[in-house]
């Protein structure tokens, strides 16, 4: 649940990508719920959308 997450910097997003990629390559499904639109946009641009399921906030 990312409902309290306000922002993520570029370096942290890159570390998230490198850290989670091995799990998803082994078949794990990772979902991030309630991601704000700014963070979701960064994750999409960086390619996290290819390894994570990003579910943005409704509002």
What would a concise description of this structure say?
It is built from two helices and two strands; from the N terminus they run αβαβ. With 59 residues, it is α+β, with helices and mostly antiparallel strands.
Your description of this structure?
The protein has helices at residues 10-25, 37-46, and strands at residues 31-35, 53-56. It has 59 residues and is of the alpha+beta class. A two-stranded parallel sheet has the order 1-2. The model has no long low-confidence stretch (mean pLDDT 95). It has 2 helices and 2 strands; from the N terminus they run αβαβ.
Count of individual helical segments: 2
**Amount of beta strand:** 15-25%
Q: Average pLDDT value?
A: 95
Gyration radius (Cα, Å) is 11 Å
Give the spatial strand order of the biggest sheet.
1-2
Low-confidence stretches: none
Main sheet properties: 2 strands, parallel
Helix content: 40-55%
Q: What separation lies between the terminal Cα atoms?
A: 15 Å
Helix and strand pattern = HEHE
The 3D shape can be described as: globular
Query: How many domains make up the 3D coordinates?
Result: 1
Quickly give the structural class.
Answer: alpha+beta
The number of distinct β-strands equals 2
């Amino acid at each position: 649940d990312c409902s309290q997450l306000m922002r993520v910097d570029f370096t942290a997003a890159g570390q998230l990508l490198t850290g989670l990629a091995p799990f998803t390559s082994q078949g794990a499904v990772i979902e991030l719920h309630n991601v704000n639109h700014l963070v979701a946009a960064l994750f999409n641009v960086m390619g996290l959308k290819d390894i994570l399921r990003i579910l943005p906030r409704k509002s």
